[in-house]
């Protein structure tokens, strides 16, 4: 009988202690987020255990239980402000991407052209290739002119009047005229291509000179 009573008393004591501990445990999470503090539009200093509604338009400090600042919470943004912020973020990302690509191109250019001699040689080779193409076209033009001379000799038998010449001769004369004009247009296009090549190499050289200068030690650049 005494043992049963003693057991009941022990259980009652344990239950009482556990119940007394519950409020403290329940209160702990309430302060775990910190204390919010701000000065509102009227100059009032306000503190609360949650974000302060009257300070949504300004920065709020979050303090720990010892008063140490844990972090800061920015003002609540309007839809327009959030859109502007997102646009600015995308713009910054695009600019960073552009800079990365630019640095990558610069590294590739320096690897290909370590000095101006290499760059000049590449320019000369590119121009030479176009000149070779122009040379072939010019030779073709010479051949066409020689062919035209022979056709004109045949045309003399018809008093230099194409209307009196046979259809085959007239067709050859027309083809020759068209071919010469085509070769002339082609040569002009290749001359324009040479100009574009020189412009490209000029722009590259301007950029390369800056990159080469950046690679030199500061003491060397000062002399």
Automatic annotation (TrEMBL):
Keywords: Signal. Residues 1-26 form the signal peptide. Residues 79-106, 174-194 are annotated as: Disordered. Residues 178-187 have a biased composition (Polar residues). This is Uncharacterized protein. It comes from Comamonas thiooxydans.
């Amino acid at each position: 009988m005494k043992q049963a009573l003693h057991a009941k008393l022990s259980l009652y004591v344990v239950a009482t202690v556990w119940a007394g501990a519950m409020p403290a445990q329940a209160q702990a999470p309430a302060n775990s987020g910190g204390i919010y503090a701000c000065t509102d539009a009227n100059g009032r200093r306000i503190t609360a255990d949650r974000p302060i509604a009257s300070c949504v338009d300004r920065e709020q400090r979050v303090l720990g239980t010892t008063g140490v600042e844990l972090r800061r919470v920015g003002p609540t943004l309007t839809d327009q402000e959030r859109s502007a912020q997102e646009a600015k973020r995308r713009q910054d990302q695009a600019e960073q991407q552009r800079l990365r690509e630019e640095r990558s191109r610069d590294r590739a250019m320096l690897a290909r052209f370590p000095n101006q001699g290499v760059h000049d040689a590449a320019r000369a080779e590119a121009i030479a290739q176009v000149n070779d193409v122009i040379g072939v076209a010019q030779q073709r033009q010479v051949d066409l002119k020689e062919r035209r001379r022979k056709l004109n000799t045949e045309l003399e038998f018809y008093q230099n009047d194409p209307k009196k010449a046979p259809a085959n001769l007239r067709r050859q004369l027309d083809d020759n005229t068209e071919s010469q004009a085509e070769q002339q247009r082609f040569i002009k296009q290749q001359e324009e291509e040479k100009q574009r090549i020189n412009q490209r190499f000029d722009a590259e050289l301007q950029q390369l000179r800056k990159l080469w200068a950046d690679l030199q030690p500061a003491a060397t650049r000062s002399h």
